[in-house]
Design brief:
Layout: E1 4-10, H1 16-30, E2 37-43, H2 55-63, H3 78-83, E3 86-89, H4 92-101, E4 110-112, H5 138-164
Parallel strand pairs: 1-2, 1-3, 3-4
Helix pairs in contact: 1-5, 2-5
The protein binds 4-nitrophenyl phosphate.
Domain Phosphotyrosine protein phosphatase I: 4-158
GO molecular function: protein tyrosine phosphatase activity
Enzyme class: hydrolase
Length: 165
Protein backbone atom coordinates (compact mmCIF):
# COMPACT_ATOMS: atom_id res chain seq x y z
CA UNK A 1 0.00 0.00 0.00
CA UNK A 2 1.43 3.39 -0.98
CA UNK A 3 1.67 5.98 1.76
CA UNK A 4 2.86 9.58 1.94
CA UNK A 5 4.09 11.44 5.01
CA UNK A 6 3.62 15.17 5.40
CA UNK A 7 5.12 17.53 7.99
CA UNK A 8 3.75 21.08 8.21
CA UNK A 9 6.36 23.60 9.33
CA UNK A 10 6.16 27.12 10.79
CA UNK A 11 8.32 29.14 13.17
CA UNK A 12 6.99 28.27 16.63
CA UNK A 13 4.86 25.14 15.98
CA UNK A 14 2.13 26.63 18.18
CA UNK A 15 -0.06 28.59 15.71
CA UNK A 16 0.06 27.84 11.99
CA UNK A 17 1.56 24.37 11.62
CA UNK A 18 -0.51 22.70 14.38
CA UNK A 19 -3.58 24.30 12.79
CA UNK A 20 -2.60 22.81 9.42
CA UNK A 21 -1.98 19.44 11.12
CA UNK A 22 -5.40 19.47 12.80
CA UNK A 23 -7.21 20.47 9.61
CA UNK A 24 -5.31 17.93 7.50
CA UNK A 25 -5.98 15.09 9.95
CA UNK A 26 -9.69 15.67 9.82
CA UNK A 27 -9.87 16.06 6.04
CA UNK A 28 -7.70 12.96 5.55
CA UNK A 29 -10.06 11.02 7.83
CA UNK A 30 -13.11 12.25 5.95
CA UNK A 31 -11.42 11.22 2.68
CA UNK A 32 -10.82 7.70 4.13
CA UNK A 33 -7.07 8.17 3.62
CA UNK A 34 -5.95 8.12 7.26
CA UNK A 35 -3.86 4.97 6.74
CA UNK A 36 -2.17 6.39 3.66
CA UNK A 37 -1.44 10.03 4.50
CA UNK A 38 0.61 10.46 7.67
CA UNK A 39 0.52 13.95 9.20
CA UNK A 40 2.78 15.80 11.64
CA UNK A 41 4.06 19.34 12.30
CA UNK A 42 7.19 21.06 13.62
CA UNK A 43 8.73 24.50 14.13
CA UNK A 44 12.04 25.84 12.88
CA UNK A 45 12.54 27.63 16.24
CA UNK A 46 12.99 26.13 19.71
CA UNK A 47 11.02 28.54 21.94
CA UNK A 48 7.86 26.47 22.30
CA UNK A 49 9.12 22.90 22.52
CA UNK A 50 6.70 20.82 24.60
CA UNK A 51 4.00 23.49 24.66
CA UNK A 52 0.40 23.03 23.52
CA UNK A 53 -0.84 25.20 20.64
CA UNK A 54 -1.52 28.88 21.35
CA UNK A 55 -4.89 29.31 23.13
CA UNK A 56 -6.15 31.56 20.35
CA UNK A 57 -5.33 28.94 17.73
CA UNK A 58 -7.03 26.25 19.83
CA UNK A 59 -10.16 28.35 20.34
CA UNK A 60 -10.49 29.33 16.69
CA UNK A 61 -9.92 25.73 15.58
CA UNK A 62 -12.37 24.25 18.08
CA UNK A 63 -15.12 26.59 16.84
CA UNK A 64 -14.75 24.78 13.50
CA UNK A 65 -14.58 21.36 15.13
CA UNK A 66 -10.80 20.80 15.05
CA UNK A 67 -9.16 19.53 18.22
CA UNK A 68 -5.58 20.79 18.74
CA UNK A 69 -5.25 20.43 22.53
CA UNK A 70 -3.22 17.20 22.49
CA UNK A 71 -0.54 18.55 20.13
CA UNK A 72 2.85 19.64 21.53
CA UNK A 73 5.45 21.93 20.02
CA UNK A 74 8.61 20.38 18.63
CA UNK A 75 11.55 21.58 16.59
CA UNK A 76 12.40 20.20 13.17
CA UNK A 77 15.24 17.66 13.40
CA UNK A 78 17.74 16.25 10.90
CA UNK A 79 15.89 12.93 10.81
CA UNK A 80 12.71 14.68 9.60
CA UNK A 81 14.25 15.30 6.18
CA UNK A 82 14.63 11.53 5.74
CA UNK A 83 11.39 10.57 7.40
CA UNK A 84 8.92 12.81 5.57
CA UNK A 85 8.04 12.90 1.89
CA UNK A 86 6.89 16.52 2.06
CA UNK A 87 7.90 19.38 4.38
CA UNK A 88 5.27 22.03 3.85
CA UNK A 89 6.22 25.51 5.06
CA UNK A 90 3.98 28.45 5.88
CA UNK A 91 6.22 31.33 4.76
CA UNK A 92 9.46 32.18 2.98
CA UNK A 93 11.44 32.39 6.22
CA UNK A 94 10.42 28.85 7.12
CA UNK A 95 11.56 27.71 3.67
CA UNK A 96 14.92 29.47 4.10
CA UNK A 97 15.46 27.87 7.53
CA UNK A 98 14.49 24.44 6.22
CA UNK A 99 16.77 24.75 3.19
CA UNK A 100 19.70 25.58 5.44
CA UNK A 101 19.15 22.51 7.59
CA UNK A 102 18.25 20.15 4.75
CA UNK A 103 20.65 17.81 2.92
CA UNK A 104 20.87 18.86 -0.76
CA UNK A 105 19.31 15.64 -2.03
CA UNK A 106 16.16 16.19 0.05
CA UNK A 107 15.51 19.84 -0.92
CA UNK A 108 12.73 18.97 -3.36
CA UNK A 109 10.63 17.85 -0.41
CA UNK A 110 10.31 21.47 0.80
CA UNK A 111 7.14 23.17 -0.44
CA UNK A 112 4.88 26.08 0.53
CA UNK A 113 1.36 25.43 1.83
CA UNK A 114 -0.26 28.09 -0.37
CA UNK A 115 0.99 26.28 -3.52
CA UNK A 116 -1.80 23.80 -2.92
CA UNK A 117 -4.67 26.32 -2.93
CA UNK A 118 -6.51 25.86 -6.25
CA UNK A 119 -5.83 28.78 -8.62
CA UNK A 120 -9.55 29.49 -8.96
CA UNK A 121 -9.69 30.42 -5.26
CA UNK A 122 -8.95 34.16 -5.38
CA UNK A 123 -9.61 34.91 -1.70
CA UNK A 124 -6.04 35.84 -0.84
CA UNK A 125 -5.04 37.50 -4.07
CA UNK A 126 -2.42 34.91 -4.95
CA UNK A 127 -0.68 35.22 -1.54
CA UNK A 128 2.39 32.97 -1.30
CA UNK A 129 2.49 32.88 2.48
CA UNK A 130 0.34 32.01 5.49
CA UNK A 131 0.96 35.11 7.59
CA UNK A 132 2.18 34.71 11.18
CA UNK A 133 -0.84 35.49 13.43
CA UNK A 134 1.12 35.49 16.72
CA UNK A 135 1.39 39.25 17.26
CA UNK A 136 -1.95 40.14 15.66
CA UNK A 137 -5.66 39.86 16.44
CA UNK A 138 -8.26 37.09 16.30
CA UNK A 139 -8.93 37.64 12.58
CA UNK A 140 -5.42 36.41 11.80
CA UNK A 141 -6.24 33.02 13.28
CA UNK A 142 -9.43 32.84 11.19
CA UNK A 143 -7.43 33.56 8.05
CA UNK A 144 -4.91 30.85 8.97
CA UNK A 145 -7.80 28.38 9.29
CA UNK A 146 -9.35 29.48 5.98
CA UNK A 147 -6.02 29.10 4.20
CA UNK A 148 -5.29 25.73 5.82
CA UNK A 149 -8.71 24.40 4.83
CA UNK A 150 -8.33 25.52 1.21
CA UNK A 151 -4.74 24.26 0.89
CA UNK A 152 -5.36 20.91 2.62
CA UNK A 153 -8.29 20.20 0.28
CA UNK A 154 -5.94 20.99 -2.60
CA UNK A 155 -3.14 18.86 -1.16
CA UNK A 156 -5.44 15.85 -0.79
CA UNK A 157 -6.61 16.33 -4.37
CA UNK A 158 -2.95 16.15 -5.50
CA UNK A 159 -2.04 13.17 -3.30
CA UNK A 160 -5.12 11.01 -3.78
CA UNK A 161 -4.44 9.98 -7.41
CA UNK A 162 -0.76 9.27 -6.59
CA UNK A 163 -1.74 7.04 -3.68
CA UNK A 164 -4.42 5.16 -5.55
CA UNK A 165 -2.48 4.82 -8.84
P1 LIG B 1 3.75 30.02 14.48
O1 LIG B 1 3.58 31.40 15.28
O2 LIG B 1 5.10 30.08 13.81
O3 LIG B 1 2.63 30.02 13.54
O4 LIG B 1 3.67 28.92 15.53
C1 LIG B 1 4.55 31.92 16.15
C2 LIG B 1 4.63 31.45 17.43
C3 LIG B 1 5.55 32.00 18.31
C4 LIG B 1 6.40 33.00 17.88
C5 LIG B 1 6.32 33.46 16.58
C6 LIG B 1 5.40 32.90 15.71
N1 LIG B 1 7.32 33.58 18.79
O5 LIG B 1 7.98 34.56 18.41
O6 LIG B 1 7.47 33.10 19.92
Amino acid sequence: MKTVSVCFVCLGNICRSPTAEGVMRRLVGEAKLAERILVDSAGTGDWHIGQPPDERAQRAASRRGYELAALRGRQIAAADFERFDLLIAMDDKNVAALRQACPAEQRDKIRMLMEFVPEADGRWGGAREVADPYFGGAEGFEQVLDQCEAACHGLIAVLRPQLLA
